[in-house]
Amino acid sequence: MSDRTTTAQVAVIGGGPAGIEAACALSNNGIRVSLFESEPVLAHNVGNKFKLFPDFSSASELVATLSHKLSGSHVSVHLDTEIVSMEQKGGLWFLTDNYGHTHEAVAVLLATGYDVFDARRKEELGYGIYKGVVTSIDLESMLKAGKLVNVLGEQPQCVTFLQCVGSRDEKIGNHYCSKVCCVTAVKQAIEVKKLSPRTDVFLFYMDLRMWGQGFEELYREAQEQYGIRFVRGRISEAASTFDDRVQIKAEDTLVGQPLKMSTDLLVLMVGMEASCGTKKLASCCGVEGAYGFAHSCSPYLSDNMTDRQGLFLAGSCKRPMSVSDTVNDARSAAVGIADYLKTALSN
Amino acid sequence: MSSYFHPFILPFCIGTLVLFAVIAVKFYRWISGLDRKQKKNVWMSLLTVRIFPSLWRIFKEIVKEVLLHVNITRYNWRMGYMHRSIALGWFLLIVTGFVETLFHFRGSGHPPWLGIFFRFFVRDYTYGISRVWADVMDLLLLYVLSGVSIAIFKSIYSRIVGMRKNTRLRWFDICLRYSLWLIFPMRLLSESATAALTGNGGFLTQGIGDMMPTEFAQVMEVPFWTAYSTCLCVFFVLFPFSRYMHIFTEPLLIVFRSLGVREGSQPTGYTRMELNACSRCGICIDGCPLDKDLNINDIQGVYLLRDVRHGLPHRNATENCLMCDQCVVDCPVGIEINEIRKQERNKGTLDTHDNYRFLDSVKSFNAIGRIAYFGGCMSHLTPGVTESMKKIFDAVGQKYWLMDEDKTICCGRPLLQQGFIAQAAELRRKNARLIVESHAQYLVTSCPICYQSFKKEYNLPIKVIHHTEYLAVLIRLGKLKPHKTGLKVAYHDPCELGRGCNIYDEPREVLQAVADLVRVQKEREHSICCGHSLGNTALDVEKQDKVRDAALRNLTADHPDLIATACPMCKKAFQHGQPTHVKDVAELIAEQL
To answer: Which CATH number is B354-473 given?
Structure first.
């Protein structure tokens, strides 16, 4: 048994920005930390992106910086290791992974993050049925490859973005706002224009929530400099035209008219949902909140703490969060955990 | 004759006269209240040769349902026994009493009430064959009493007859129920008292009579008979205004239904018959998803029919219903509950023609040699279904006209379900013209809502089939040869296709060509509604989801790999619900070509 058991002071579950940042911060304070990531790579959600809002800095550079920081620390990193269950016994947490190994820790940080909404659940938008319908994640890889083409392999004449796919949607059951899609769409629309200036870009929205520093400016730039057209209204359905373009039916709610148009690419701005790991572990520990996200004690003074002793939360396992907020949240979690260890170990 | 009179028979005689007078008036009003079309149907049936087999069918159905209660027994045998013992038992008690009187008086010379009060008036009937009569009568009385005892138990604990709930009754019906329950014990006591004094009882009444002290029997005999007669009087006088009116209405309903009368869009005399034929047995409550999953307990068929019949407010009962037709299938009387609900939902005439001007811009298509394919508005939200059908049409070389590809005109049924009867008729008129002008061979639909509408509400000159029927034919003919996979599939019967149009076998036949069907506990006519039915606009999404989750629990109990259905509405509902994949039958076939 002993060869299969590892012990650490803190176990961090999830190797995204939250997990890495918190693990490094704790490790720098001389705390023994183990980090578990179910995927073979670190920070895969951020890694899927090309550039980050609002300053168009490179996402892969951010991942590289985080990875570098982690490899320079004393954190013991377990990739491809999924924690499938965990329980607390006598002040210690026992984590079981997918290989059947057990890991002991005094404190656990849940940084299991989010999954992207599966756009096939909104079948009327045609994702997975019409080739011209892509998600914002698919578009990132196109942008990364520097190659923006329609179904026929030509430069698209028109690209249309649709906001709030899987967010703020009563029918789907996700009433919440995913928070980052508005500014991501504006960012992506500008990137499309930069890559292919002759392409018409439309963006359908319910309302645009430009909450962060520099976001509103980016939105203005998109309209004034890039001529991106913003239409208030949702797209009700997509269909294929005879030439494999996408025909969309929507309503312009400012004009009060239904409209029908064809586009080469329809980009669905898919929202965030609690990841499988988040759902599983949050319910395993009894800290499950709304929509499968993990529930913290209080959003004000103890947002990293849970109702369970020694179980902490960081990042988008709690709610949709941007990268910068996630990293800040992880640092604050690290402070909370360090405090907890002091009292736990002195007892 | 005067020797066969006693004042205690008066309440009974008055009650009986009132009963038959009121029933005669009611029947007259209902029959004369039939509308032109219904009257025409009746005459058409009466004046043709078909009437002879119909008469036999009517007789059989009346015996089966009014006396034997076959449908209720099929639903639950204990419940069936309860209803049968009271109905059949009482009927036989009256008939046997009548025959016994005839037998005794050699056919004539006795007043009509004698059959009821025979033992009181014919006191010396204690020899020979009379013992057999007495025993038979006692046996029948015992049969009725066993039913009454179950009814009394049921009023306290409905599970005794396998029902989740008892119907909540009006105080009037409750009072009348007590008077009904009292009739038979009173008869037992009366006959026993007489038997104590004369020895003319059967095994039961004589047995009880022998236990009565003679003085007690002497004092109580007339009061007992008076109470018996009074119970009958109270019951008979109030009967036509209570739920017990179903006893006489059901045969009438069976007659008119067999003569081809059906509910129309407006309430008529036939609607009154249906309303009065409801016995408020509460079987419609048992299966209702709104009661089971949402605890909404005032909208079920029984309450709607009651409130409409008595003119009570019923807006909620009218609107808050999924129209899943579970109650219609379960109803042992076969009342067209949801047709009545639709009549009550009627929102009146067309407000403006402007709303329908866009219809003129939709043009027909020369579809000679082709079939017309109508995906339906809901299929526009599930393009996977329509794309699969296109693929299948191409695979078998079938030329088709996709009727609603671009400009869509709704089939009208969702409007109709919401009571926009005139508005729906506008859409139907236009769609029917498009189809007729196209000269298409037949019409295939993917949405069961449209299917039911085209089939039942349109009167089209061409055949209408659902895509599951179409696929079943293609597979039978060997034109489609899909590959069999090892998938375990649970099939969900959509309300509109299953209970609505009786199509249960074709989708299963098609599915078996590509996958293995797992058994679902509640399937076919007991399939649970997906909750997102267009029939209900009163429920919010969270409540719809609760019904949906109940349906999903039922479907996924055997852990299938995926759920298959044949309705875009159900598909969407389930898609939003949970992790198991949901696919339309057509998609599963298209994938395996």
So the answer is: 3.40.50.1860
Q: Do B541 and A238 touch (CB under 8 A)?
A: no
The CATH number of domain A2-113+275-346, selected from 1.10.1660.10, 3.40.190.10, 3.50.50.60, 3.40.50.2300: 3.50.50.60
What's the gap in Å between the CA of B382 and the closest CA on chain A?
Answer: 5
ipTM of the complex as predicted: 0.86
Is A121's CB within 8 Å of B576's CB?
yes
Q: What is the pTM of this model?
A: 0.89
Inter-chain touch A170–B541, beta carbons under 8 Å: yes
- A130 near B CB under 8 A: yes
Where are the strands (E) in B437-537, listed by range? Answer: 442-445, 463-466, 488-491, 516-517
Peptide bond between residue A54 and the one before it cis (omega within 30 degrees of 0): yes
Q: Tell me which residue in A124, A171, A240 faces B382 most closely, judged by beta carbons.
A: A124
In chain B, which residues have their Cβ closer than 8 Å to the Cβ of A171? 541, 576
**Which residues are CB-contacts of B522 (< 8 A; sequence separation ≥ 6)?**
B528, B554
Is A2-113+275-346's fold the same as A119-272's?
Answer: yes
Chain B environment of A237 (Cβ under 8 Å): 380-381, 383
Q: How far apart are CA B207 and CA B143, in angstroms?
A: 16
Instruction: Please give the Cα distance from B366 to A240 (Å, whole number).
Output: 23
Residues on chain B touching A129 (C-beta within 8 angstroms): 383-384, 387
Q: Assign a CATH topology to domain B264-345.
A: Fumarate Reductase Iron-sulfur Protein; Chain B, domain 2 (1.10.1060)
Mutate to test the interface with B, among A171, A248, A275 (most CBs of B within 10 A): A171
Distance CA B385, CA B306 (A): 42
Task: List all residues of chain A from 168 to 197 with a beta carbon under 8 Å from chain B.
Answer: 170-173
Amino acid letter for position B364: S
Cβ of residue B575 closer than 8 Å to a chain A Cβ: yes
**Are B405 and B362 a contacting pair, CB within 8 Å?**
no
For the beta carbon of residue B483, count every other beta carbon within 10 angstroms: 9
Contact present, B250 and B333 (Cβ < 8 Å): yes
Interface contact flag, B380 A171, Cβ < 8 Å: no
Chain A residues touching B405 at Cβ < 8 A? 239
Token representation of residue B105: 């008086």
Chain A residues with beta carbon closer than 8 angstroms to that of B447: none
Would you state the CATH architecture of domain A119-272?
A: 3-Layer(bba) Sandwich (3.50)
Q: Which of B384, B387, B576 sits opposite A171 (nearest CB)?
A: B576
Test B575 with A238 for CB contact under 8 angstroms: no
**How many residues comprise chain B?**
593
- Measure B495 CA to nearest chain A CA, in Å: 20
* Per-position pLDDT tens, chain B of length 593: 457 889 999 999 999 999 999 999 999 999 999 999 999 999 998 888 778 888 899 999 999 999 999 999 999 999 999 999 999 999 999 999 999 888 888 877 788 888 899 999 988 877 778 888 999 999 999 999 999 999 999 998 888 888 888 888 888 999 999 999 999 999 999 999 999 999 888 999 999 999 999 999 999 999 999 999 999 999 999 989 999 999 999 999 999 999 999 999 899 999 999 999 999 999 999 999 999 999 999 999 999 999 999 999 888 899 999 999 999 999 999 999 999 999 999 887 766 677 777 778 888 888 888 999 999 999 999 999 999 999 999 999 999 999 988 777 899 999 999 988 888 998 999 999 999 999 999 999 999 999 999 999 999 999 999 999 999 999 999 999 999 999 999 999 999 999 999 999 999 999 999 999 999 999 999 999 999 999 998 999 999 999 999 999 999 999 999 999 999 999 999 988 866 689 999 999 999 98
- One DSSP character per residue, B443-482 reads EEES-HHHHHIIIIIS--SSEEEEHHHHHHHHHHTTS--P
CB pairs under 8 A between A and B: 35
Total number of residues shown for chain A: 347
